[in-house]
Amino acid sequence: MLNEQEFIEMLKNIDQQHLLDGLDSVDDETKKAFFDDLRLMDSSYPGGLKQYVANAKILLAESKAGKNPFNGYTPTQPDCVDLTAFNDDYFACEKLGLENIDKLAVVLVAGGLGERLGYPGIKLDIPVEVIDNTSYLAYYASVLLAMESRTGKAVPFVIMVSRDTNAGTLKALETNGYFGLNPNQVYILKQELVPAIKDNEGHIALDAPAKVAAKPHGHGDIHMLLHSSGLANKLKSQGIKYLSFIQDTNGQVFNAMFAALGASIKEGYDFNSIGVNRVPGEAVGALCKLINGDKEMTLNVEYNVLDPLLKATISPDGDVANEKGFSLFPGNINFLLIAMEPYCNILDKTKGIIAEFVNPKYSDDSRTSFKKPTRLETMMQDLPKLFTDGQKVGVTVFDRVWCFSADKNNIKDAAAKAKAGSPPESAATAESDFFWANRQKLSYAGMQVDEADEVEILGIPHTPGPRVLLRPSFALGIVDVNQRINGGSIAGDATLILEGDIYLNNVTISSGSGLVIKACQGAKVTVDNLQVDNDGYKQIMLSSDDLQSDNCPDYLKIRGYKMQAVDVAEYVFDKPGEYNI
Ligand code: UTP
Predict the structure, then answer these.
(1) Looking at residue 105, what DSSP letter applies?
(2) CATH number for domain 64-403, candidates 3.40.50.720, 3.30.565.10, 3.90.550.10, 3.30.160.100
């Protein structure tokens, strides 16, 4: 390790002399923290700050020249499995996936700040629904436990955190007994920040004298960390054949997980991107097969690169709608399934350092100055840029709301998006979509489901009910729901929560009513011909005083309402045995 003087010399040699200006004006503690910070960034980036600055200069020069990274390539449709409808293909894939869940590990990237949402805590702590207040982390853990109860094998759960989310994530796990998971199956990997860059010469930015401006390097760090920690190879040696990459606030992800796994296995995909119908111009990347002579690659083309690429090739009007009203290519939702064997080979070859990019916001036409410091970033979906040995890359397309509805935007921005015709991706819509997906499962199983009317809360339209929570212990796949539900109906603003080994035969839940059945492990409950008629749960809008009040929890403020149990039929079976209602 370089001593302080050598480290200072290194900084000077890479043209970062300015970082040392003003050090005389700060106390020893600040100075020490400054060097500790810089050293951490130096040691956690492959090749150190020297390499980071060198990479930044190259990428900034390319960006200044307006170089299109896909120059010469023509976008075409990717190899694609269409699972947008619940048909034989869908069920065959889901069945195959469920038969192979013992070979799956889940990788959750959760290092993001969530600046757009502006939630004060970690996003994983936010409840996906506020009837039972299940946090995203608790929900993800409950799926892993349900998978384990089928196979007897604990599902490895890798969570990537950052400086911003590490403490909060550990606290959530520890104060909740790891949500029933064994701490040994949970692997925390921590990504470090990278220095912000203030100009095209690669000079590192300072927030203040002796305070480096630092920013996240993006979720692509997960590949580097899975390699440098040795975890990818360890999981492979434990028989894991697929890694599923998911993000922090997508409660829909497990609806599609098992069918996507089945599609990967059936098609022999080494890399399977889950895609959705994309709205033209939307700030999500598009999944394309790019062809240039005999070279071809299937990957995510970011939205800022897509429009010029389309204009230069197949669509003179750029990123516009096709005849069905959607973008020409499926949208990327950062939900990936990667086969372990080729993945480990690539990590061993590349150390998991994947294509970096830079996206400075210029303040002048000559592209010489930035509005604010920028930084190099990586995205986990860029892994196929490293593929060279004929790895098979494909896309599996699902109905959008079935597989993706995240909580990314604060109320004001979500309302503006809704107004502009884009998905709002707010807490309220993520929650109502979570219920919607469960309603689809009931409908498919033959229950009559009457939708509630759409409402608008603080400018965000969504359909609140019927609110259906089918816990993973009740059903993992849609095929499981089919075996457990026989006839019956649920209407309007009703609520239904099912947890455990439960069978409903001809159960009728009238609009506004609430039915909750919870069966512990080993309890089997059969419900016959039940008619539920009560006052259920009520949705109560928050007043403007509530929205300002310190007493109102932030997870309610980001959705604009709360739920209150008024009169609910609740059956709890906490001892093993067979029961009838
Ligand atoms: P998002 O696009 O939601 O970005 O990241 P974000 O940084 O969390 O939120 P904004 O942009 O500040 O509003 C997609 C996923 O990638 C993770 C996030 O936690 C989320 O699960 N992520 C993002 C990381 O793990 N590390 C990063 O550096 C950035």
Answers:
(1) E
(2) 3.90.550.10
Residue 424 exposed, middle or buried by CB count within 10 Å (0-12, 13-18, 19+) = buried
Q: Is-contact 226 158, C-beta < 8 A?
A: yes
219 lines ligand 1 (CB under 6 A): yes
Q: What is the pLDDT of residues 240-296, one digit of tens each?
A: 999 999 999 999 999 999 999 999 999 999 999 999 999 898 889 999 999 999 889
Tokens linked to 219: 């979720």
User: What is the length of the chain?
Assistant: 581
Q: Model-level pTM?
A: 0.94
Architecture of domain 412-580: 3 Solenoid (2.160)
Render pLDDT for 154-202 as a digit per residue (tens, 0 to 9).
999 999 999 999 999 999 999 999 999 999 999 999 999 999 999 999 9
Q: Which of 107, 116, 193 to mutate to test the pocket of ligand 1 (most atoms within 8 A of CB)?
A: 116
Residue 200: count other Cβ atoms within 10 Å of its Cβ. Answer: 19
In terms of Cβ atoms closer than 10 Å to its own Cβ (0-12, 13-18, 19+), residue 524 is middle
Q: Is the CB of 190 under 6 A from ligand 1?
A: no
